[in-house]
Specification:
alpha+beta, Immunoglobulin-like, 2 domains, five-stranded antiparallel sheet, three-stranded antiparallel sheet, 5 helices, 23% helix, elongated
Length: 284
């Protein structure tokens, strides 16, 4: 099952709302989703700060357990060297909202006697805290996919509009960043897709600037991505999910370029390489 912030346990748990571990300890995940020919791949990027729990995992006294909750609950064991799962498309439905969470579960009895990361409250009796096999030791934040979208992982839609009064136009619709071109040649298709990247960069900047204006609290110019509710606008939902999946905690007007670099997999770097390749080809 998926655990929320208000889940209670009779022993210390590493979680977002945990009061058992010191404040500088965290357990966060991001999820990279890929659609293959006949299966889906969910790759997990995680930040887990507890040395105590990491040592348990290395010794195989505890394990990572991935929970994918959609129409049904599915559970998958992960290892530090294999933080992804491939699921045949016929075995999972992404037509509805899908939630993902990473758990840390004990494989044997675990004593907290040597756990130096707990709050002072446990100092006098942590030697008495022992959990049984298959007990929850920690759970991450929840990452959610909105499967009802036409294109859950796509942000852009290109259109040809000869009636434009300019060569190109950007507009934000309910699900996509739309780039309209007055002429088909402006899409630079013959020169390779990477030459479109400056247009994609501009579209992302337009969309992210609107995101900050929409979701920043009054009198603030930043958005805490872990604090806001999931956007109902599908484009903003995609952007929010993409930023969270890259473990970005905050977006503001000053760090938008840094955010774009992280969520676009080097969109400008790929453009520069493409231009350099064309130049080299001309010289040859």
């Amino acid at each position: 099952m998926i655990y929320k912030k208000d889940a209670n346990f009779p022993y210390p748990i590493l979680a977002e709302s945990s009061i058992g571990y010191k404040e500088d300890h965290t357990f966060q995940i991001g999820v990279q989703f890929e659609e293959k020919v006949d299966h889906y791949r969910f790759s997990i990027q995680h930040k887990m700060s507890s040395v105590f729990l990491r040592q348990l995992i290395v010794k195989q006294d505890a394990s990572y357990l991935l929970v994918i909750q959609g129409k049904d609950n599915q559970f998958f064991s992960l290892s530090p060297n294999r933080m992804y799962v491939d699921i045949p498309q016929h075995k999972i439905s992404l037509t509805k909202r899908t939630s993902i969470q990473l758990h840390i579960v004990s494989n044997k009895k675990v004593s907290f006697t040597e756990n130096l990361e707990l709050t002072p409250f446990y100092n006098q009796f942590k030697h008495e805290v022992t959990v049984q096999p298959y007990s929850m030791l920690g759970f991450s934040n929840v990452v959610t996919f909105e499967g009802g979208m036409k294109s859950p992982t796509e942000l852009f839609e290109k259109r040809l509009n000869p009636e434009l009064s300019s060569a190109i136009k950007f507009q934000l619709e309910s699900e996509f960043i739309v780039i309209e071109f007055k002429e088909e040649a402006y899409q630079l298709q013959a020169a390779g897709p990477a030459l479109m990247n400056p247009f994609l960069y501009t579209g992302l900047r337009v969309a992210l600037e609107r995101f900050v204006r929409t979701y920043a609290n009054e009198d603030e110019d930043y958005v805490d991505l872990e604090d806001i509710e999931e956007p109902t606008d599908l484009l903003d939902y995609k952007l929010h999910h993409l930023m969270v999946s890259k473990l970005i905690g905050e977006i503001n007007f000053d760090n938008i370029d840094e955010v774009i670099s992280k969520i676009s997999s080097g969109v400008i770097e790929k453009y520069v390489k493409a231009v350099e390749g064309l130049k080299q080809h001309e010289e040859d």
